[in-house]
Amino acid sequence: MAYNLLKGKKGIIFGALDERSIAWQIALKCHEEGAQLVLTNAPVALRMGEINKLAEITKAPVIGADVTNMDDLKKLFEESLAHFGGKIDFILHSVGMSINMRKGKSYTDLDYNFTQKSLDISALSLHRILRTAWDLDALNEWGSVVALTYIAAQRVFPHYSEMADAKSLLESITRSFGYHYAVRKKVRINTVSQSPTRTTAGSGVKGFDSFISYAEKMSPLGNATGEDCASYCVALFSDLTRMVTMQNLFHDGGFSFTGVTEEVLSAMEK
Q1: CA-angle at 152, arms to 94 and 193, nearest 5°
Q2: All residues at 6 or more sequence positions from 111 whose CB lies less than 8 Å from its CB, including other chains
Q3: For the whole model, what pTM was predicted?
Q4: 91 φ, ψ to 5°?
């Protein structure tokens, strides 16, 4: 059921790759709620993914941009402003990559060149995006920015490697830039810490299948799906959450505040 929560609003969605992407689900939900969209991803991701299918469904243009390149981001925002004929109301940051994990390198044996790339793409990209929007005065007052994160920023998950560090930095940027943008334009910036979700990126984490099963047992409401996350993000993009900013918001069925569940205890006793 749609509520027209984003009727008349315009947004940029970073990171939709295929139907398994949370960003893909968020784009669909935003479109359903009345938003106009621009879709963007890195040029290599555009070649690998199926974003043109999403573009057709949401009637959105696709503008490629490397999030580590300020010139690309400036072009993206300028073309988006021209397409919309005005300023932007919301942005989704759903960007992350770990070459160390792809190469099977453990946290105690990181390739630091890979790590710098991970931090650059997964966290500093948010600062670049916000800086570009700031310089171009591209966001409307009371705009909203949401970045997807994970609880590994607060807790140790051995196989999440340096992505845990990247998520910690992402959340710090959210707070710091969130302060400045709130003072200047009443723009709010938040992160959403989502349940483990079967995305293309998430499935690359070692032991992911076992962990998603464990998280299901440790979450009183069960794991939140990508579609659930999309609905939550729509609420954060809407005018219903105008006074929420600089927060890390857990969207994980209660996992983040549960010490142990009866289901886990029963499994251990067996």
Answers
A1: 45
A2: 99, 100, 103, 105
A3: 0.96
A4: -140, 135
d(CA 107, CA 159): 8
Question: pLDDT, tens digit, for every residue of 166-197?
Answer: 999 999 999 999 999 999 999 999 999 999 99
What is the topology classification, in CATH, of domain 10-269?
Answer: Rossmann fold (3.40.50)
Helix axis angle for 112-119 and 163-185, nearest 10°, is 30
Contacts of 270 (CB under 8 A, 6+ apart): none
CA dihedral sign of residues 264, 254, 210, 123 = negative
Nearest to 14 by CA among 2, 27, 1: 27
Q: Quick check: 233 and 225 in contact, CB under 8 A? A: no
The two tokens of residue 31 are 């479109």
What is d(CA 136, CA 196) in angstroms, rounded to the nearest whole number? Answer: 35
